[in-house]
Amino acid sequence: MRIILVNKYAHVTGGADKHCLDLCGLLMSAGHEVRLLSTADSANEHLPGAYVGRTVSHANRSRLRPRARVAVAQRSIWNPAAAQAMKQLLLEFRPDVVHSHKLYPQLSVAPLWVASKFGVPIVQTLHDYEFMSASSLDSAGRWLDRSEGPWDFRLLNTSTAPIRRILHRRLVTSWISVSQYLADVYDRVGIAANVIPNFSDPQPQPPPFDDRRGVVFLGRLSPEKGVDHVVGVARCSPHLSVSLAGDGEMLPHLLQVGSTLPNVTVLGRVAPSQALQLLRRSRVVVMPSLWDEPAGLVALEAMATGTPVVAYARGGLAEYVAAAGAGSVVSSFAELNSEISRLHSDRASWNVASSAGILAISSRHSPNEYLRHITAVYRQAVERDAGANMAPIRRR
């Protein structure tokens, strides 16, 4: 098949970017022709496609001047460069399907509007709550972004909410959800999604229990990720070495904390190869998300390295861990601290969770399993766009 993938970044800034880029490689390795529509950046992976300039990114959004902020707002509603890039790709590449991931605010709805006008079916992956709420973190369906971020970020999210919730939704032929939990949430607002859990590459034989030490948090260093709870574990369990890896607004604060707690190491942003080694060297991965996280690529990467995960009983992240039996799902901080210590010290329990995680990656979360289901959705979207009436694929 010929597929256009659309995502606002062609380098990894978060889980959705990594998933999209990994999917691009997976499809190409299976013999499909793929083009990527994204924004230009020196950090981009070298993939065939079309790349447009952007006015905002994670790195510069807090430093924009008023005129630049106006340009960002305008392009978040309609990005003419993205529309033109999609038109050119459609004319030259003639895709069977367009697969959209994260577009706002950089690309806007423009490329999907153009694809729809050309009669190309559109598949949309649900990575969060952006098609039911102003904030992508909000599972309650609010029209206003009430997050703790800067007011101008919240205003921008609120201004694009009607476009995402009304216009964008009408353009989509088929939906994909990264977890059953997320699919159930969207089902309540009238979106029936095909449930295809994320995938991760299997890893070489992981190190055994005795060759590992410590607890690791790997991800965005922001309040909703429960980073303060990780620090709380370090305070309550001084015998555990705790490492925090990632970037985000809490990094300066955490560097100060790390200077006062001898069992805490703050690594900041790490390369993918370093992240993998961190997972392989650690006994436990802690993911205490305080929002209803729809999925968790870090959890899958931990499973692939045979590292048990401890998470709160929220969202699709908890679904991934519990369904695999690859660690512990808990309901309170006291349980979080207790389960981390138990898995870190109990060889038998650790071995059971480690083996379960590896098994889940080779079956439910394998690249081949994902490829089989995603290509079925693509074919279904093409047939549905041609007038076929087919029910969505449900995986439980």
Please, could you describe this protein's structure?
- This protein is an alpha/beta fold.
- It folds into two domains: 2-199 and 366-385, 3-Layer(aba) Sandwich (Rossmann fold); 209-362, Glycogen Phosphorylase B (Rossmann fold, 3-Layer(aba) Sandwich).
- It has 14 helices and 13 strands.
- The chain has helices spanning 15-29, 66-77, 80-93, 110-117, 151-171, 180-187, 227-236, 251-260, 272-281, 297-304, 315-324, 333-345, 347-362, 367-385, and strands at 2-6, 33-39, 49-52, 97-100, 122-126, 174-177, 193-195, 215-218, 242-245, 264-268, 284-287, 309-312, 327-330.
- Helix 3 (80-93) packs parallel to helix 4 and helix 10 (297-304) crosses helix 13 (347-362).
- The radius of gyration is 21 Å and the shape is globular.
Low-confidence stretches: none
- Provide the succession of SSEs: EHEEHHEHEHEHEEHEHEHEHEHEHHH
Arithmetic mean pLDDT: 93
**Main sheet: strand order:** 3-2-1-4-5-6-7
| CATH fold-level topology of the largest domain | Rossmann fold
CATH first level of the largest domain: which class? Alpha Beta
DSSP strand content: 5-15%
* DSSP helical segment count: 14
Into which percent range does the helicity of residues fall? 40-55%
Cα distance, first to last residue?
27 Å
